[in-house]
Amino acid sequence: MISIRNVNKAFGRVQAVRDVSLDIGAGEFFSLLGASGSGKTTLLRMIAGFEGVSSGTILIDGQEMQDTPPHLRPINMVFQNYAIFPHLNVRDNIAYGLQRLGMSRAEQARRVDEMLEMIALPGYGARRAHQLSGGQMQRVALARALVLKPKVLLLDEPLGALDKQLREQMQLELRGLQRQLGITFVLVTHDQEEALTLSDRVAVMANGAVIQVDTPAGLYDRPKTRQVAAFVGTMNFFDATVHGQGSAQVAEIAGLGRHRLTGDGGSRGQGARVLIAIRPENLALSVTDPGPGQAAVLGRVQARQYLGGRQLLHVDVKDRTSPIAVSTVALPGADPWEGSEGRAVWLTWAPEAMTVLDPE
Amino acid sequence: MARYTGFYAPNRPLALYAAIFAVVLYLPILFIPIFSFNAGIYVRFPLEGFTLDWYWDLFQRESLLRAFWNSVKVATFVSLLSTAIAIPAALAIARYRMPGKAPAVGFIMLPLVLPGLIMGVALLTLLNRMGVQLSLVTVTIGHMVICLPYAISVLLPRFIGFNRSLEEASADLGEPPLRTFWRVTLPCNMPGILACLLMTFTISFDEFFMAFFLSGSERTLPMYIWGQLRFPQDFPSLLALSSLILLFSFVLIFASLRLAKIGQPSQTEAGR
Fold this sequence. Notes:
The complex is a heterodimer. Chain A has helices at 40-48, 90-95, 105-118, 134-146, 164-181, 192-198, 216-221, 226-231; strands spanning 2-11, 14-24, 29-34, 55-60, 63-64, 75-78, 152-156, 184-189, 201-206, 209-214, 236-243, 250-253, 257-260, 273-278, 283-286, 297-306, 310-316, 324-329, 344-349, 355-357. By secondary structure, chain A is of the alpha+beta class. Chain A has a six-stranded mixed β-sheet, with helices on both faces. Chain A has a five-stranded antiparallel β-sheet with strand order 13-12-11-14-20. Chain A has a five-stranded antiparallel β-sheet with strand order 15-19-16-17-18, with no helix packed on it. In chain A, strand 7, helix 5 (164-181) and strand 8 form a beta-alpha-beta unit. Chain A is elongated and about 80 Å long. The mean pLDDT of chain A is 88. Chain B has two domains: 11-51, no CATH class; 60-263, Orthogonal Bundle (MetI-like fold), CATH 1.10.3720.10. In chain B, 74% of the residues lie in helices and 0% in strands. Chain B is built from 13 helices and no strands. Chain B is globular, with a radius of gyration of 23 Å. The two termini of chain B are 40 Å apart. The chains are: A alpha+beta, B mainly alpha. Chains A and B meet through strand 6 of A and helix 7 and helix 8 of B.
């Protein structure tokens, strides 16, 4: 549905988007995820037509669009601050784009009513923007864009201004709406949880470039770079060296012993320097020495972070500057890790828990 | 020791100072309405009794009514024209980067501080050279020169503060630029535009220097007052007239200041 080919954007000397190529399929919920300044919003604005491209092509539904002004592109957008017209009421806001389609007043009214129904705000037609809550404005912005039946809906941090509960509710609604309508959604967000929850696929951006495109599970389980691994969820990193060949290959983590690899590091030769990444929930804790045969690491609980139902234990290990984060289920009532600060613990993990990355 | 009431507690000496400041500023003007109700011809205390005769007298003077309508006509034209011209100029200044913008804006604003006398002489010389007959048209031209910088200074902050994503939304919903201007930019900035109309109307209505140099046989209201100052017996009527003009100007300026504040982004944001 959208093909982005080698798109660059420079603002003066600042390179905002670097050689981005992406293919977004019809009916896909696609997210651009990145920190502020990563170029994700600029890329979205180039798709919408508010920014021109410095070089490269943007195809929407097979048509080259990079030289088409925004009002002629077959896409609609939900803006970060909603951009509800303050001088018009909700009805007229939703009908705004219908006016030039040459449909009868009755037909316009019918479509607007349909939309008000869809966003569950019937009876709000006469209200002005300032009489709406953030969540309601968000829905009106959505209705105003969707009433035109676009092929692609762009969403620029649409939930950023809402409080956490409302945001989670709107996430579910957005996902449901996208499934129901089958329209391609392209979402810009800096919230990795939001991107993982909503999307079919996510493009992670940093410094203007796309560094990985994958499904949410793919990003979480198989990050390709340290940057992606660190940005999506919490991650522990270990510097290591590869030893041995084939199935006998092990990673020697500085000060923490040798750990069998599953074949991930296969392409890397003897002595290659790598970065091992392990998720906190893939580490197991034990207060007793698991004994020989297990590659266990001895450490000391430095802090316990209670997250409600879950907890993060930060374990200090000799010769390591940053503690290792371990996530476990927090038991209701008296959790055994309550007040565990200072206790000696052994860490173990399965070979599958290790993701082998290139060092920076 | 007085109790500490907070960093933002009212400051009484400063409030008193502000009050005195306002009184001194408006004291001379206060005498005009007071003496316009005085039964005697001369401006002196004690007052000689209350009368509305001077106000009645105004409506008997045909030349005054004529001058009044001339002023209304000129001010209407000037306010509409200068606002219409200032809107695109202010939009361009607010939005686009152009080479030499800062000095250009400086020159646009310069007539605000140039002596009216100099501007009047300059325009008179120019129009004479061009062989233009002095009339209400030349007065209108002169007033445009004075009003344009005011118009831009009223509109510019509104356009700078205007949320452009509203225009982006309009474009996104399929409207080309000119239609976006009509359907979004103009109506959203209507309070500022009305403020601009009122401001320029008031300035033109009260203006003296340009009218002095550039009017022909048809006079504006300030010119009429200037002409009648020679006749002592007319003075109380002129005070009555001045009182009405003062009242009218105050109402317009206050309305324009109020309008300029409505819907300004900083205020609406704070209100939420």
